[in-house]
Design a protein that fits this description.
Blueprint: H1 8-11, H2 20-28, E1 33-37, E2 41-42, H3 55-67, E3 73-77, E4 83-87, H4 89-97, E5 102-107, H5 112-123, H6 131-151, H7 158-169, H8 173-181, H9 187-194, H10 200-206, H11 211-224, H12 230-241, H13 247-254, H14 269-272, H15 282-305
């Protein structure tokens, strides 16, 4: 019989970090660590967390090559054969890169909702979670909690569900809702949020635009070469609510000079590079420009004294 999500908070982390003695206890209770072929392990359906081949992954691969996989993954058996990874997607990928053929795994027989909640909770313990990862994982957990309530005839209100997620994630229920709103962004806009090209708060406002309107807004941003401020995003959201969200109306808002830009002069890199050696860094270019401006200022002062 699959376990319900009610048992997860008691076992999810204790089962990961254990001693050999602890593993023996797990065996007597029906859980044990076993070596499973990497080829039999499959990613969690709609897994919202990205597996990146970055510096952190390189360090993990080097550690595995030296010490092996110290922390077992958690997986559940699939009806069609093999196992679905619940916790340990990055360890699985790193083990592949390290040349391993098996990985230590704790196998649990979990239903879809319990598996989803455990998958989200175990991954949210990481640092540097991208906004898109947090957004989609919160949405998946919210749906799982609500579905659990329906199956057990204990209705969990959406307000209460977001409060539960917020408490477990260290944020308010309103902020949880705002993250979930981001799942309404088109992929191109979501990528810009992840890359910090569009700020979180304006992105939440833009999530209320229809998909077609968001695509038009992408064209407007490309044309104006600037991200939206919160005020601009709020007014563009209002345009959408009024049915007047066109390229022209959004361009009029995005073309406004922001307060922050009034005291800032921007020179594009392609313009500056025409006057500097290719080997110059941005800092070297900045220092040279300041020196030239100081010389120009002194020259102007001498001319005024004549």
């Amino acid at each position: 019989m699959p376990r319900t999500g009610a048992n997860i908070s008691l076992t999810s982390y204790d089962d990961i970090f254990t001693t050999e003695a602890g593993r023996a206890e797990e065996t007597t209770s029906g859980e044990r660590v076993q070596e499973i072929l990497l080829t039999q392990m499959h990613p969690f359906r709609n897994h919202p967390f990205k597996i990146l081949d970055n510096e952190e992954m390189v360090n993990m691969v080097e550690s595995i090559m030296q010490f092996g996989v110290l922390t077992p993954a958690i997986a559940r058996p699939l009806e069609e054969g093999g196992y679905e990874i619940i916790s340990g997607h990055r360890r699985h990928h790193a083990a592949e890169l390290a040349g391993l053929t098996t990985i230590p795994v704790i196998v649990r027989d979990l239903d879809d909702d319990a598996a989803t909640i455990l998958m989200v909770d175990s991954n949210l313990q990481r640092e540097d979670i991208l906004p898109s990862e947090r957004a989609f994982s919160f949405k998946m957990k919210l749906e799982a909690i609500k579905h659990q309530g329906q199956r057990t005839s204990v209705q969990v209100a959406p307000k209460l569900s977001t409060a539960i997620i917020g408490e477990e994630s260290g944020m308010s229920k309103d902020n949880v809702k705002r993250y979930i709103r981001l799942t309404n962004l088109i992929p191109e806009l979501m990528d810009m949020v992840d890359n910090k090209q569009v700020a979180f708060n304006p992105a939440v406002e833009l999530s209320y635009l229809a998909k077609e309107e968001q695509q038009i807004f992408m064209d407007v941003m490309e044309s104006e070469q600037c991200p939206p401020s919160l005020s601009q995003a709020q007014r563009i959201k209002k345009l959408s609510q009024e049915g007047n969200c066109t390229f022209e109306s959004m361009s009029e808002i995005m073309g406004e000079e922001k307060k922050a830009d009034l005291d800032r002069v921007t020179i594009k890199n392609e313009v500056l590079k025409k006057y500097f050696p290719k080997s110059y860094t941005p800092k070297q270019m900045e220092n040279t420009i300041i020196k030239l401006l100081e010389q120009w200022q002194k020259k102007k002062q001498r001319e005024e004294m004549l």
